[in-house]
Amino acid sequence: MAPSSANPPGRLRRDAQRNRDLLLAAARDSFARHGLDVPLDRIAKEAGVGNATLYRHFPTRGALIAEVLADAGVGLAAAGQEALAAEDAWTGLERYFERILELVAADRGINDLVTRPVPGVPGVPGVPGVSGVPGTIGIGRGHAATVGSLITRAQEQGTMRRDVVARDLLSLFGPLCQALPAITALHPDLWRRYLALLLEGFRARAARPLPVPPIGERRPDGTAPDV
Known about the structure:
Helix content: 55-70%
Oligomer: single chain
Largest sheet: none
Radius of gyration: 22 Å
Number of helices: 10
Distance between the termini: 79 Å
Strand content: under 5%
Number of strands: 0
Number of domains: 2
Order of helices and strands: HHHHHHHHHH
């Protein structure tokens, strides 16, 4: 029997794909503006579909978040490679952290993803966690390795103080990311000032002896730290 013209082959599949695309677009916009806690029924309403349609495509909030932000790390991975390829390691380090903050400042959803636990989202490949908070995607190995390599090279080039480790920089960078919503509400580029102030403390020319050694490191005499 020939198919009915009222229900041509592939119509439901095309409609389903259209609804999925609408949901992803609405979720991407809502997460970027309001963060990952935006009500799902609001996303469905903005997409022009019902709640049942949303849950048919994305059974959980975590599934929707993971899908929306799956490609968030692509640009950052490229930024990491560019930073490592920079002849001057300090310049590479500055540009790398600037790229991360540009993305996090512009997208509340990515800010949430990298600075706090998000139930149902074990991690999005390529997105560097910066908070170190248990239960978040944490400090991604690739991200930490990039920072560690840049610090080592900068120390070898004499531009980075030699008594710091990657954890020092990452531990201070996380709270800056968490503060971005409030900072950008005052001025969209104000974070650049605070990033510059943070990094200046790591320059070799600003070095003065630090009061305690970094966590997990040993003193120059081989003894364990007290902290």
